[in-house]
Design brief:
The complex is a heterodimer of chains A (about 300) and B (about 270).
Chain A: E1 2-11, E2 14-24, E3 29-33, H1 40-47, E4 55-60, H2 65-73, E5 76-79, H3 91-101, H4 106-119, H5 135-146, E6 153-157, H6 165-180, E7 184-189, H7 192-198, E8 201-206, E9 209-214, H8 216-223, E10 227-232, H9 238-245, E11 251-254, E12 259-263, H10 266-275, E13 282-287, H11 290-298
Chain B: H1 13-28, H2 33-52, E1 59-62, E2 65-68, H3 69-100, H4 103-108, H5 114-142, H6 154-173, H7 182-195, H8 209-215, H9 218-231, H10 236-264
Antiparallel strand pairs in B: 1-2
Helix pairs in contact in B: 1-5, 2-3, 2-5, 3-5, 3-6, 3-9, 5-6, 5-10, 6-9, 6-10, 9-10
Classes of the chains: A alpha/beta (about 300), B mainly alpha (about 270).
């Protein structure tokens, strides 16, 4: 569905994407993870065929966005990061007119808009103004709109940012249903739980490059340990204590409020720490998550 | 959920223009009252100046023919109504859609192209200007201010004026960065309106450079074209005006497209 080779994007002297290789297969849910400024959105815009490629090769559905932009976009659904709805049209017309942009005939458009209102659970808001919708409703409308042309490939740029937990779960459920219907999903997110929930495969981007690639499980196996022991001591003691337990795990990370010991056997680490006469205020053993991988690969400092 | 299996054929440029016009029509169909002010403005000018002030003035000479003042002013108001109507949509509304609504970004996520957007928006602007002009032309005819069957051609002339200004104003708008920049539009709009031989003959500028400058401005071309048509005094100047406005619109359209590419396809 998507094939990128040495894909680059630069804005003047600034290189946002510095040569990435990506392959997205039909029917999978593929994720781009990365901190702000990693080049995710630039990559998404190139895939959406609205941003000219600066270098390398990009093929979407076997076509070249430079020459077949309209044909590619006709088969894509794009759900941008911000809800850019048409505020001058009511909810129904947002779907109907958007469908007409694709060249879908009137009757089909009307029928389809009606179905999507149901899908987005906003049927009773059909005649409402967009500005009267809640944040969650706007998001669902934006996603519904991106489905008007029955896309083969759906691009979602941070789909659940700003939504409450209920709305997020409704959305995840809907995206899962789309995936089961055979739609290929490409998602950017910086929510790790979202990536673990939705993505079959993902890449972690950092500073315009791909830092790692694989399924969530593979990434955890490759870049973290099976478990993490979190040890909380008194404030200011962590730095000094870290040296004493360095050998207990594969890696020890010092945070202001706790130590993270990466090990395949977290409980053993805790036992060993106590055996050395150290007394943490609190301990927690948990499984490694994608977040551990993410922070390992992209660092803990703020990107911007 | 039913799935559409057939892939819709890509829109032709004409169909894409139609869909964009449809979008604007849907927005305005419930706000038709907004159109009334645009229509009334030149009518008020016609009554106050053309007829009111006109009572103090005997007749004017236009291309060697004596015509009543109202007949002199009316075609100028016709051209102005096309000008004003086109200006409204292609400046403020385009700016709002581009900067705040991100409407064109939404459209570009579909098979629509920047060329479609340029054509669609300019077509809408020219339609709005044309509606005002058509209504005004009816008023003129009812008041007996048209002297020749050539006046029928004043409508396509007004469409042409609306097209030329719609395209150029939209092009200029792509360089606007804030609402303050629109003061410059007003600054250009007022003198164009007042000095394009709208209320007094071009001869008032004398035979110097100033007259040449005025004759080279677009609204003057529109005014004189409409005046020649409604009074039935057609000269070679009519052809110059037509070519002038066609070229102006074509350049505007070309620039709009280039600018949208640069601004939106980054």
């Amino acid at each position: 569905m998507i094939s990128a080779r040495g894909l680059r994007k630069s804005f003047g002297d600034f290189e946002a994407v510095k040569g990435i290789d990506v392959e997205v297969r039909k029917g999978e849910a593929f994720g781009f993870l990365g901190p702000n400024g990693a080049g995710k959105s630039s990559t998404m815009r190139m895939i959406a065929s609205v941003s000219p490629v600066s270098g390398g090769e990009l093929r979407i559905l076997g076509m070249d966005p430079a020459t077949d932009g309209p044909a590619i976009r006709g088969r894509l659904g794009v759900c941008p990061q911000e809800d850019t709805l048409d505020n001058e049209l009511n909810v129904f017309d947002n779907l109907y007119i958007y469908g007409r942009y694709f060249g879908i005939d009137r009757a089909t458009c009307r029928e389809r808009a009606q179905e999507l209102l149901e899908f987005a659970q906003i049927t009773e808001k059909a005649k409402a103004k967009v500005e009267d919708l809640s944040g969650g409703m706007k998001r669902r409308l934006t996603i519904a709109r991106s489905l008007i042309n029955n896309p083969d490939l759906l691009l979602l740029d941070e789909p659940t940012t700003g939504l409450d937990p209920q709305a997020r779960h409704v959305l995840w459920d809907q995206l899962f249903r789309l995936k089961q219907a055979g739609v290929t999903l490409v998602i950017t997110t910086h929510y790790m739980d979202e990536a673990e929930q939705l993505c079959d495969r993902l890449v972690v981007m950092d500073k315009g490059r791909i830092a790692a690639e694989g399924s969530p499980r593979e990434l955890i196996d490759a870049h973290s340990t099976r478990e993490v022991a979190e040890l909380r001591f008194g404030v200011g003691e962590h730095e000094a204590l870290a040296e004493k337990i360095e050998d207990l795990g594969e890696r020890v990370e010092v945070l202001p409020d706790r130590l993270l010991v990466y090990s395949d056997h977290g409980e053993d680490v805790v036992t060993a720490v106590l055996d050395r006469g150290l007394h943490p205020i609190a301990t927690l053993v948990r499984r490694s998550t994608l977040e551990d991988v993410f922070l390992r690969l992209t660092g803990r400092s703020l990107a911007d | 959920m039913a799935l559409i299996q057939e892939i819709p054929a890509p829109l032709t440029p004409a169909a894409a223009t139609k869909v964009l016009v449809l979008r604007n029509y849907v927005v305005y169909k419930d706000a038709w009252k907004l159109f009334i002010t645009g229509f009334l403005e030149p009518v008020f000018y016609l009554f106050s100046i053309g007829i009111g002030v006109g009572q103090l003035i005997d007749t004017f000479e236009f291309h060697g023919e004596a015509i009543p003042y109202a007949e002199f002013v009316a075609p100028a108001m016709l051209a102005t109504s096309a000008f004003n109507g086109a200006l409204l949509d292609s400046t403020y509304n385009v700016f709002f859609k581009m900067k705040y609504e991100k409407l064109y970004d939404q459209m570009l996520a579909t098979p629509l192209t920047t060329g479609d957007i340029a054509r669609g928006e300019i077509t809408w602007g020219l339609m709005r200007g044309s509606v005002y002009s058509a209504a005004f032309l009816v008023v003129m005819a009812l008041m007996g201010l048209t002297q020749s069957w050539w006046a029928v051609l004043a409508l396509p002339a007004a469409v042409l004026i609306a097209f030329a200004f719609s395209a150029v104003c939209m092009a200029v708008t792509t360089w606007m960065t804030s609402w303050q920049d629109f003061d410059k539009i007003t600054l250009a709009q007022m003198p164009l309106f007042l000095f394009s031989a709208t209320f007094f003959p071009i001869e008032a500028f004398g035979d110097g450079v100033l007259r040449w400058v005025v004759e080279a401005t677009p609204l003057y071309r529109g005014v004189v074209l409409c005046r020649e048509l409604t009074t039935g005094v057609i000269t070679w100047e009519s052809a110059i005006s037509v070519v002038y406005l066609v070229v102006m619109g074509a350049i505007g359209l070309f620039v709009v497209r280039r600018r949208l590419d640069k601004l939106l396809l980054t």
